[in-house]
Design a protein that fits this description.
The N and C termini lie far apart (about 45 Å). With about 110 residues, the protein is an alpha+beta fold. The chain contains 2 helices and 7 strands, in the order H-H-E-E-E-E-E-E-E. The protein has a 4-stranded antiparallel beta sheet, with no helix packed on it. A 3-stranded antiparallel beta sheet has the order 1-2-5, with no helix packed on it. It is globular. It has a domain of about 70 residues: Immunoglobulin-like.
Amino acid sequence: MKHCILRSLLVAWLALPAAAFAAPEQPAEAPASAIAETVAEVSLQVKGRSVQIVGAMNGTLEVFDITGKCVCSVRIDSNDKTVALNLRKGWYILRVEKDKEKVIRKVLLP
């Protein structure tokens, strides 16, 4: 049985076109003027039951439980903000949104 499966996988792998193994095309570089206008990158860092958000001033942090229900929403009023999450332990989805930029992370609170 193992030999049949391995033989089938080998035949399928050999049948793939060579383009499947080629390096992906690199996107063209943006002009310098476009780079200067981009928004600073938003980053999230979870430490225990608190979340540090950098680069999302005037944005919002939304916390969803695993069913998709929004359990917390916080307005971010500084460029480097730490928010304490007083939630039960478990999995949560954090979404930080600033202008058109979104950062979404799945985290486990202890």
